[in-house]
Amino acid sequence: MNLIAPLIAPDTTLLDISFTSKKKLFEHAADLFAQTRGLKAADIFTSLFERERLGSTALGHGIAIPHGRIKGLKDACGAFYRLKTPLEFDAPDNQPVTLCFILLVPKDANEQHLQILGELAHLFGDAGMRARMLDADSPSALLTLLDSWSS
Question: What Pfam families is this protein classified in (predicted)?
């Protein structure tokens, strides 16, 4: 069992979707979490956007992990995006982002936040796993792949 698989579901696993900017991606994610988790879209967007302004959440190799702390959120949650058109994300290797995991954590979940971010970095650091995520043909196939992964 890993910390990542329980954070996403079929309705928060989006494959081959396109956005024209990070801002549009964050707006979509904010609306998605508002619908699936009953949160305020404006709070989510602001949290993601403000964190990104501190520095890019792109890791390189086409990966980004935008994340935010949300007041009133009870448990960590996530959304997985595989982008049809790679997005500029100011990555350290200057490569655009294709795989994006958006993580929301409760406002005071410091240790949990760091553990999940560490595990995501480990997951996305695996070149074979990245290739399998790019090849997954459905949200359920991607969820099965993430469920079977162990750090």
Answer: PTS_EIIA_2
